[in-house]
User: What shape does this take?
Amino acid sequence: MAVETDCLFCKIVAKEIPAEIVHETDRTLAFRDINPQAPTHVLVITKGHHADAGAVADADEGLADEMLKAARTIARKEGVAEEGYRLVFNTGAAAGQTVFHAHLHVLGGRDLRWPPG
Ligand code: 5GP
Ligand code: ZN
Assistant: This one.
């Protein structure tokens, strides 16, 4: 599994930085965003280091699928699956990505506007 020593989310996987973990699978970890933008704001990450969603798509078989399934499970656990929730991969700096270890935002618990800006 690829690890980057200077990567914030690799450090969360390694338990070097604490996070409130809500879900875990063989290849994914999910924890609450430190600066939540909605009542439910969870980040699903890959345990291995992949820079962004495109790299995840190019990576191991079924890894992107595992992230999506994790998000589905979290939405149900958080009680937002029925009313609706949003899944976001900010991919690249122009799209607002600030942490270059792929993460899927799971947002819910309030009305979410569109377009996101
Ligand atoms: P991005 O802007 O890259 O799509 O999202 C990065 C997200 O990571 C932001 O929503 C930010 O609040 C969150 N974040 C940054 N540092 C930490 C941290 O140390 N712990 C947690 N739990 N979330 C973080
Ligand atoms: Zn990383």
In short: Residues 26 and 34 are 23 Å apart (CA to CA). Residues 8, 17, 19, 31-35, 43, 90, 96-99 surround guanosine-5'-monophosphate (ligand 1) (CB under 6 Å). Strands lie at 21-24, 28-32, 40-46, 85-88, 103-108.
